[in-house]
Amino acid sequence: LLPGASAIPVTPALLVDNAALEFNLTTMTSRRPGTALRPHVKATKSTDLARRQAALGHVGFTCATPRECEGLAAAGLGSDLLLANQVVDCRRLGRLVDAGHRVTVAVDSEATIEAAASGGVREVLIDVDVGMPRCGCEPDDAPRLADLARDKGLSVRGVMGYEGHLMHEADTETRRTKVAESMEILATVHSNVGGDVVSGGGTGSWDNNEVVTELQAGSYSLMDGDYGRLELPFRRALSVLATVISVNPKGWAVADAGLKALALDSGPPTIDGASVWFCSDEHIVFSGLDVRVGDRIQVWPMHVDPTVAKHENLWLVDGDTVLDSWPVDLRGW
Amino acid sequence: LLPGASAIPVTPALLVDNAALEFNLTTMTSRRPGTALRPHVKATKSTDLARRQAALGHVGFTCATPRECEGLAAAGLGSDLLLANQVVDCRRLGRLVDAGHRVTVAVDSEATIEAAASGGVREVLIDVDVGMPRCGCEPDDAPRLADLARDKGLSVRGVMGYEGHLMHEADTETRRTKVAESMEILATVHSNVGGDVVSGGGTGSWDNNEVVTELQAGSYSLMDGDYGRLELPFRRALSVLATVISVNPKGWAVADAGLKALALDSGPPTIDGASVWFCSDEHIVFSGLDVRVGDRIQVWPMHVDPTVAKHENLWLVDGDTVLDSWPVDLRGW
Asked: Cα torsion for B263, B266, B268, B273, to the nearest 10°?
């Protein structure tokens, strides 16, 4: 039971434990200093949090959406942005380039190369399928696409390949072996494509991906509940503060954080010491805790990224002390 | 495949089919005219859509959060708002009452009655547990709570009981029988508590709940995919417009609507004619459709309420023609 966090007027509210965040940030930086880490902002969607990462030396960021690029640029963090996704209309990115920001976009097809060139983006990475069925070209096709991009006047900074299918592999050695196999594909493609950049990886491969020149980790700072199954040093920093609104004499209680405040895609949230029965839109029903109406409790989400995206701001806290309120200012597309 | 919706610049985007919406609204109104329907705005979170319901004669609204009450009041729709949820701090609602809006709040405990009285709310409904393990007092305890509320100076308008556990019961006759059993509890409590209002029900009990004086249906206007399992006349009006961003020669394609744009709590979304493989944060991966990069497709969410809450606006469309853009202005808490 959380004693108060009494300066937070409305629940549900997102809490970030400052000590856990700081530990996670510095732990990652010690292994991946400077440009060896390109933090992914899709997990956190906060320019204030990104500024903490930049202060540690990570001045380039990974984005999933044009809105994230625009928001980082507006916040003065646009010195080296990578949109690590395919974009069919690059004109918004081109406007950022025209305004003096550096934006590189991933491409995996003739159409997305054409979109980059015609939209005013000047730098690309060739995105390669390294084993997860999602975006990325066939490895054999990468040199042709790189040549096509250069013919269109684009600078090919290198390659990208995300081994996302391996991030949540629980066994450390299995994960290490499979990441190495996946990254062998990327290394081979890189040798055929050229450029300085090999971009990829994430929190689950933070200490075993030996190929990428820059790791695209994002979740490490706030830490998914689901990553807790892995042997990783990062600590859970994100929770949802909720208020108990009803206690039923038949043995359950209800708090005001439901599935509009908590992502359920990676499994139900947890409450320390309690059994969670279910979530509905605005409620979480649980048993096993001795609570009264008005008590505040902490709920732990299993998946950080979509949970953050449901909220307007993050409350940075040290125990019961509120240190800051950070807007979740990179939401939307 | 959607030919264009070309006036919509950014995907993913929420589409509302105007003809389906209009059909749903008028179908419900014909069965539940005027105050016999108190539309729940938690499903739609749009004051523009609420205005359409008010124009059909439904001038009282059901809300799940103080923010929804505040937004409706600011939009001039605050003549009779019900916050159908327990609230521990009613001061924001009291301020709406002070400003001349009518706000009634559900109470199920001494603590929430005290919160209503001290927060400046003057009218309550006694919320009763009618079979779903969530909020609501024991039926036998309702008269005591009503007396307590009156002692505190509150007006008890009546009772509320939500048979939410029966909304998605697929068999029509089973649903009718179980709803009747559940509502028998509420009718008995009402005879002991008094007041003019018996509030409850939802889309799944729209034509079989014979007890409530006002139905709290919300999903009927846009229609959940999951309600499609039931024999209901309402039509799917809400979809997510997505752009194909990658087509893999090994047989799958990727569009730009992932689990940040689509709620997955009631099951994976569907694409007509395709097999959906999985959703990640910003992607939906599927097979079985002959698509090219840049094509736009429609994705059908299974659960309307949390899907709407992920977006900034709704695009009201008639086929490929955009009629209006409605802000999702009732998000948050």
From this structure: -110
